[in-house]
Design brief:
The chain is α/β, with parallel strands linked by helices and 281 residues long. The protein has eight helices and nine strands.
């Protein structure tokens, strides 16, 4: 059997699938699209800011290894006219500019190529301050999907008709306004990717951290045992795992009750407890 010459393209095997690719960008270009990998597609006017922080640490390592993949879709080439305009003035008047429905539509059509139409398998998200707050449960839902499409807004937002047409889910990082959706998109992707199996390397880490059970995380300590006169709580050095577990649970409840009464009420409702109990927590 003859060997292929050096000039011949390499064949695709295993998880590799033959699909059209976007312009490569650093870590995003080091491996081809891998079958079964969780994929984040990001529609943005600033594709050059990706992968950004996502290319660092464990998420960057997982990106390089193909545990997940990132594709950016530049909105500008879909713009209208000589200057590729993507926005226009708000209908009814007002300050700022609004991303045009026809322009965003073309980008979304590009993004949905090869993706499931079922929103449970492939959510389409618009990062917006008027959306529902991002939660750990939401990130877990996204991680269980095949992938996600994120639309990064700019200016005064996007034409409402696009949200209606594509049944887009709006998600917010909190009650504040950013210049655009790129930072929010990276935060959402980070929160989601770390829940993908093998990304963190220690599944227990994701099960024990803040919000996983509806509570804030308990305080953490490490060496030295005494620092500037402050000692690690004795119970943590006792080696009695059951008592340590009880202490951590009690501290998580105390912190949640003090700092996040909303989470505490939800936690108590879920576990059929009175939110006013244990006043001395």
């Amino acid at each position: 059997m003859s060997k292929p010459s050096k000039s011949e393209p390499a064949k695709s095997f295993g998880r590799k699938s033959i699909t059209a690719t976007l312009k490569p960008r650093d870590l995003m270009a080091e491996i081809p699209h891998l079958k079964g990998a969780w994929v984040a597609k990001v529609i943005t006017l600033f594709p050059e800011v990706f992968p950004g922080v996502l290319g660092a640490s464990l998420t960057g390592k997982a990106l390089k290894e193909g545990l997940w993949q990132l594709q950016t879709i530049d909105l500008r080439p879909f713009g209208e006219g000589r200057h590729r305009n993507v926005d226009d003035t708000p209908a009814g008047g007002g300050a700022g500019m609004v991303l045009r429905a026809d322009v965003v539509d073309k980008a979304l059509q590009k993004a949905q190529q090869g993706t499931p139409t079922d929103r449970t398998k492939w959510p389409v998200i618009y990062l917006s301050p008027r959306g529902r707050p991002l939660t750990q449960a939401m990130a877990q839902r996204f991680a269980q999907a095949d992938g996600i499409t994120l639309l990064c807004g700019r200016f005064e937002g996007i034409d409402e008709r696009i949200i209606e047409e594509y049944a887009i889910e709006e998600v917010s990082l909190g009650d504040f306004v950013l210049t655009g959706g790129e930072i929010a998109a990276q935060a959402l992707i980070d929160a989601t990717v770390r829940l993908i199996p093998r990304v963190l390397g220690n599944q227990a880490s994701t099960e024990e951290e803040s919000f996983s059970d509806g509570l804030l995380e308990h305080p953490q300590y490490t060496k030295p045992s005494v620092w500037k006169g402050r000692a690690i709580p004795e119970i943590l050095l006792s080696g009695h795992h059951a008592k340590i577990s009880d202490w951590r649970k009690a501290m998580a409840e105390r912190l949640t009750k003090e700092r996040r009464p909303d989470l505490w009420r939800a936690y108590c409702a879920k576990h059929d407890r009175d939110p006013e109990e244990d006043q001395e927590l």
